[in-house]
Each structure stands twice: as structure tokens, then as C-alpha cells.
Specification:
Layout (H helix, E strand, L loop, with lengths): L12 E11 L3 H11 L4 H9 L4 H20 L7 E10 L3 E6 L5 E6 L2 E9 L1
Antiparallel strand pairs: 1-5, 2-5, 3-4
Helix pairs in contact: 1-3, 2-3
Length: 123
């Protein structure tokens, strides 16, 4: 078993985070959007999300703006030096529904949800 050590002297410092929970969108679709902005500077990331046609892009855009506002208010960070250091999507609760099918059967329908998190920091 490998021993975990703290990464001291790391250049990536987390400044602020924002989380959006219980999004009625499958995690697989949300990850496509979040992967576009990971590791990018904040201004280009906002531009990418603004012009992306996906539903998750609008949600991620608002979430990124919230993370920037959190950095500005809580940490007094300079917005021009912020980067999207981490971003991920976790699976949320799945609503289980059933659709009637032929011969008296029922087909399951899984309505998935997800939790989206964006962390901004200085590089």
C-alpha cells in the first residue's frame, strides 16, 4: 500500500469552489461540458461555455461565475490570475420510473441527476 504524502510547495493553490447539486442531467453529459474548461484560464473558460450549445454549458457558466464571485469576496483574489484548477461531476440520485410495455410488462426508466463542482485557483 502506497503512503500518501502532502504535496508541499505546490504551485496550484485552491482559492474558491462552487458546487451545484441535483442537476437533472446525466453525469455523462455534464462531464462533456466540464472537461472543456478544466485547466483553462477563467476568461477563456467563460467564453467557451457561453458559446457551447449544450444544456450543461449554461449551468456550468453560472457555476463558474459563482466560483469567481466566491474567490473575489472570500479570498480577495485577483480575477485576472484565476484558473479552473479542478472540475468534476459526480453522480446524484437516480429517479426510477416505469413505462408500460407490450404483453403486460414494464420497462424501467432511470432519470439520472448529477452534482457539478468547479474549483478556481491561482497558477
Amino acid at each position: 500500500m502506497a503512503k500518501k504524502t502532502k504535496n508541499q510547495g505546490s504551485k496550484n493553490s485552491e482559492v474558491a469552489t462552487a458546487t451545484l447539486r441535483h442537476i437533472r442531467m446525466s453525469p455523462r453529459k455534464a462531464r462533456l461540458v466540464v472537461d472543456l474548461i478544466r485547466g483553462k484560464q477563467v476568461e477563456p473558460a467563460l467564453a467557451i461555455l457561453k458559446f457551447s450549445p449544450k444544456k450543461g454549458a449554461k449551468l456550468a457558466h453560472k457555476l463558474l461565475e459563482s466560483a469567481i464571485a466566491n474567490a473575489r469576496e472570500q479570498q480577495r483574489a485577483d480575477v485576472d490570475t484565476l484558473w479552473v484548477t479542478k472540475s468534476w461531476v459526480d453522480e446524484g440520485r437516480t429517479l426510477k420510473r416505469y413505462m408500460p410495455a407490450a404483453h403486460g410488462r414494464a420497462n424501467p426508466i432511470r432519470k439520472r441527476s448529477s452534482h457539478m463542482t468547479i474549483v478556481v485557483g491561482e497558477k
